[in-house]
Write a structure and sequence with these properties.
- With 152 residues, the protein is mainly α.
- It folds into two domains: 64 residues, no CATH class; 88 residues, no CATH class.
């Protein structure tokens, strides 16, 4: 258990830095304003202080457990985003790769099927947890699209 927690504490901020740096390459507004080193430090600080804030919130509010706080974003980060990745992988494969490098048709069908399964399980998990997910998710998507359009 110690090694699992130590691995997350040690590797999580560095992984967040790498992911955020890759995302920043897609949005030209971020790339022009911030260097890769600055993006890395921002992601590391955001991850560390965000994690501390979650721990402090669960301690400050009696009756709130860490699992309850983590369940809300975990549904998005694990189930729904895996489904989105399956759909995006199929689309990007057909859109950007030459015919010779594309995945076979049966793999494309498996990707779409896995994406549908993840989507159904994600919606069920949102429904079972709380109805607020159905308000937060569309607001989150629209806000992300609006921010991306402003940074473009």
């Amino acid at each position: 258990m110690f090694l699992a927690i130590f691995g997350n504490v040690y590797g999580g901020p560095e992984m967040a830095s790498g992911v955020f740096n890759e995302y920043s390459r897609v949005v030209p507004g971020i790339q022009r304003r911030w260097s890769a080193n600055r993006i890395g430090w921002f992601a590391i600080v955001w991850t560390l202080f965000g994690g501390l804030a979650i721990v402090w919130i669960t301690r400050a509010l009696p009756g709130t457990g860490l699992v309850e706080v983590a369940t809300f974003p975990a549904i998005y980060a694990s189930i729904l985003l895996c489904g989105f990745y399956c759909f995006a992988n199929t689309w990007a494969d057909r859109r950007f790769l030459p015919q010779l490098l594309r995945m076979p048709r049966f793999m494309m069908i498996f990707n779409i099927l896995a994406g549908l399964i993840f989507a159904v399980i994600g919606v069920k998990a949102m429904w079972d947890h709380t109805y607020w997910h159905f308000i937060v998710l569309p607001v989150w998507i629209l806000a992300s699209m609006w921010i991306a359009s402003k940074l473009r």
